[in-house]
Design brief:
5 helices; mainly alpha; 81 residues; globular
Length: 81
């Protein structure tokens, strides 16, 4: 489901992408790639940096081993608030 969500994002359908990420997280709440990609759609594609940061901060607490979280947070900061 996460891969399909990424494919939807790549063709510009953020709504379907978010739906797939949400479905993936319902099935497996610990599947961090779905939450990470959800943050990308919210923060990068839709410009809702607050929602993206909220997702990423929760993800950082649950999965501190995922180093790419800090990179995405930095990218959001570079784009401004």
């Amino acid at each position: 489901m996460t891969d399909l969500g990424v494919a939807y994002r790549n063709v510009g359908d953020g709504g379907k992408a978010l739906g797939m990420f949400e479905n993936a997280l319902k099935k497996d709440p610990a599947h961090w790639p779905a939450a990470f990609n959800e943050a990308i759609v919210w923060g990068i594609d839709r410009g809702d940096k607050a929602k993206a940061r909220e997702i990423l901060m929760k993800l950082r607490k649950e999965h501190p081993e995922v180093k790419s979280i800090d990179g995405l947070l930095a990218a959001l900061d570079q784009k401004g608030s």
